[in-house]
Amino acid sequence: MSSPSLTLPSDPQEQTIPRWSTLLAGLIGVIAIIVMVTLNSGGEPAPPPSQPGEQDDLSRFLPVDGDKAYQHLKEICALGPRISGSEAMQRQQQMIEDHLTKHGATVQRQSWEVRHPESGQPVTLTNLFGRFHPERTERILLCCHYDTRPYADEDPVNPKAPFVGANDGASGAALLMELGRHISEIDTKYGVDLVFLDAEEFIFDRERDPFFLGSTYLANKYKSADINFQYKWGILLDMVGDKELQIYQERNSVGWKDTRPLVMDVWRVANKLNIPEFVRRPRHTVNDDHVPLHDIGGIPIIDIIDFDYPNPGYGPKYWHTQQDVPENCSADSLAKVGKVVLTWLQEVE
């Protein structure tokens, strides 16, 4: 879906127009542009560009190292496909746990068993928590899924090929690992949970197998009060490493009344940081891990996702294909998304 655009027809006959008429026409044109921008941005007035004084103030925010995040992405992909319950998934869990522990997090595993959709054998699933200030009962949730689809099922050549999931899987996990380096340095009243959600894509048959097992499990536990804390806000990071980054506002996130203010706040931060890759209008409705966390758990959570991979419109699509590899992701994209999230986290009231 594309945003509406204005095309002005050319006038085949040149006319002489009085100076006052030209000025009036220019004023009308400016008003029309303002109306267009407002409509295209979902009814909210566009924020003004950042001023030099605002830029000077940005020095107080912590840096995000895109190169470090990208290195994490490559190391995760080097494990191969991280299908839920697989040996590669177990190695990834240990890699993440060691990293988070090194940077001051309390690591907890939330594990349970399901039946394998194909074999019927028991499979252990694990949501991995890196908790900063675990004693605080009012918390922020930053999460991603860290499993990969069993096959590259959208691949035009071989839909049964292995799927490495550099963007769809590794990018969110890699960025949370880089953010984990900084969380303990942030002066905030909130506790912060970095949560790596299992089995978002434990799908062998799309008509049969349920999606979002990890987020659904967490949402049910949270709703049933087995968890003795409250999430003030939540952000889901998914497919945030695309080289040709364009992050539109996800339509569920901007449509829910309790999460729309969070969308506006995050995109405000992106504007202040002069990161235009955060496009200030909605584009896709994405059924993702944030939906059960919101609808079942009641957590006010939004999805930051670049679903146009590599770009909007016609052309090759890397989603769920053999082209979802580190070479089609970038350190710069990870740095930009990380900078927005970390700056928002330092400002959140």
Walk me through this protein's architecture:
This protein is α/β, with parallel strands linked by helices and 349 residues long. It has 2 domains: 28 residues; 292 residues, 3-Layer(aba) Sandwich (Aminopeptidase). The chain is built from 10 helices and 8 strands. A 6-stranded mixed β-sheet has the order 1-2-4-3-5-8, sandwiched between helices. α3 crosses α5. The longest helix is centred in the first third of the chain and has 22 residues. It is globular. The two termini are 34 Å apart.
Give a quick precis of the structure.
The protein is 36% helix and 17% strand. By secondary structure, it is of the alpha/beta class.
Relevant terms:
349 residues, alpha/beta, Aminopeptidase, 2 domains, two-stranded parallel sheet, 36% helix
Overall geometry comes to globular
Question: What is the overall number of helices?
Answer: 10
Number of strands: 8
What structural category arises from helix and sheet content?
alpha/beta
Instruction: Please compute the radius of gyration using only Cα atoms.
Output: 22 Å
Strand order of the largest sheet: 1-2-4-3-5-8
CATH topology title of the largest domain:
Aminopeptidase
Estimate the mean pLDDT confidence. 86
CATH class of the largest domain: Alpha Beta
Low-confidence stretches: 1-43, 50-56
Give the fraction of residues assigned to helices: 25-40%
CATH superfamily placement of the largest domain: Zn peptidases
| Distance N to C terminus | 34 Å
Oligomer: single chain
In total, how many domains does the architecture comprise? 2
Largest sheet: 6 strands, mixed
> Strand-residue fraction?
15-25%
> Which H/E pattern describes the elements?
HHHHEEEHEHEEHHEHEH
* Architecture (CATH level 2) name of the largest domain: 3-Layer(aba) Sandwich
